[in-house]
Amino acid sequence: MHSPVVVVSDLSVERSGRLAVDKVSFELQSESETAVVGPNGAGKSTLVAALLGLLPRTAGRVQILGQQLSPNGDLPGAIRSQIAYVPQSLALQGRFPLSVAEFVGFGFDPPGPRWPWQQHRKRKNAIEKALDRTGCIDLRNRLLSELSGGQLKRVMLSFCVVRPRQLLVLDEAQAGLDVPSNERFQQLLLELRRQEGWTVLHVSHDLDMVRRSSDQVLGLNRRLCCSGSPDHTLTPERLVDLYGPNMVPYRHQCHG
Amino acid sequence: MVDTQALALVLAEPFMQRALIGGLLTGALGGLLGSVAVLRELSFFSDALGHSALLGITVGILIGVNPTLVLIPFAVVFAILVNQLVERSSLPTDALLNIVYSTSLAAAILFLSLVESYRGGIRQLLFGDILGVSTLDLIVIGMLLAAALIYLCLSLRAQVLLTLNQELAGAVGVQTRWHRLAFIVLLAVVVAVSIKAVGVLLISAFVVIPACAGRLLCRRFPLYVFVSSILGGTCALLGLLASGLTNLPSGPSVVMVQFLGFLIALILSSRIFRRPSTTALDPQI
Predict the structure, then answer these.
(1) Is the N or the C terminus of chain A less surrounded, counting Cβ atoms within 10 Å?
(2) Residues of B numbered 31-60 whose beta carbons fall under 8 angstroms of chain A's beta carbons: which are they?
(3) pLDDT at B282 exceeding the cut of 60
């Protein structure tokens, strides 16, 4: 029996002076994949920010890897080092003088001050291995700003896999990817999740992908409207409840 | 053809020696901080800081205190207040900064017009007087350069991740608020200290141009920071030498040399990096 990696009880979080997440409770079982779905402004990114320790809680309790978090949201270093995060985008306007290998190396480094010339063999090996595992080894000397959307997302997974972690949080990581890139990213994520034993929490608007890949779905619209398996949660009635009457659910029927 | 005798005469003057060292240090400092400021889209912020510095000098004159002593605390407080304004306001940052810097400039000019003895000094404040740099100024700029270098070297990972994505930086343990504030305060101090040599109108060129040239040439972040700083210092040195030889104003001469450096970087980058995978300045990891 897998134990819960994250236990959230009656969590409420304010953002910009309004209650963005209201009394939300759920658990993430070890090595499971959970999707958070809901309309824009439903509090999905706020929920993620609260779990990452970036926003204080207004009320409720959060336990990650058996440790109760303080109300101000600060994560202890030992817990933080077990969490990997993939944001929706990076600010790469224009030419950004940062190579792929350098970026991935930042995922390996511990927090705190460090001289840039401290390039240990262990660090270099970890970067090479991470890039190899995500199929990005040929990109290592490319600039981050020269990559396509799909390549950039795979490099961001290299950033996560460069050292062992237990929890992976993705905030609309697949946004902006075309269908083949999305499929490739999802396949890579699945492989890495199995190899690394990651517990995954991802915010997504791609309901078809959520249906195929998730073990649990949380339907959020400030409050938790529904939760459970994809088959139980992503029904036309529940989606209309979650997104409103204009929601027209469509399910792909792929054969062959 | 360079007149070597004239050059030797210029270099023999103590004020010119101080000016050259001051230019070298100020240019290197501007390039160093500019490398991060440009990526974080703070170019306009440094411009606003420069204009606010003029207001700080005016306040110093009006209350009868040495303007140099007022300038640094004024710039730091101003930078923190503007940062708070930008963070809390729902208006676009460039619009807010425009309001702040044009109001600062207007207030400073109005106050200066009230002070009879300073009417003739406005030109020096606007374009700088590198030849008036004292030994104490050199020590302060040197110490600032060392502090900025140590801070940026030790916090390189934090600076990069903070620039790329604030949530990502926070998720890996970067103290985002602290580093944002620390960088802005450092930038404010550097702008305040450099105003005397560079002038209010040209200070942003010292921050922006060498960093943009470095950005065109480099493919690794530490190298980019280093090259921007070296370009800043070298262009300032060459600009001052040219100014000494031709008897042209020092600040504008330096900016023109910086622009020339930028053009060379532009040409080199289009030749060197025509293919994305080419790595002329890119040592292996």
Answers:
(1) C
(2) 39, 41
(3) no
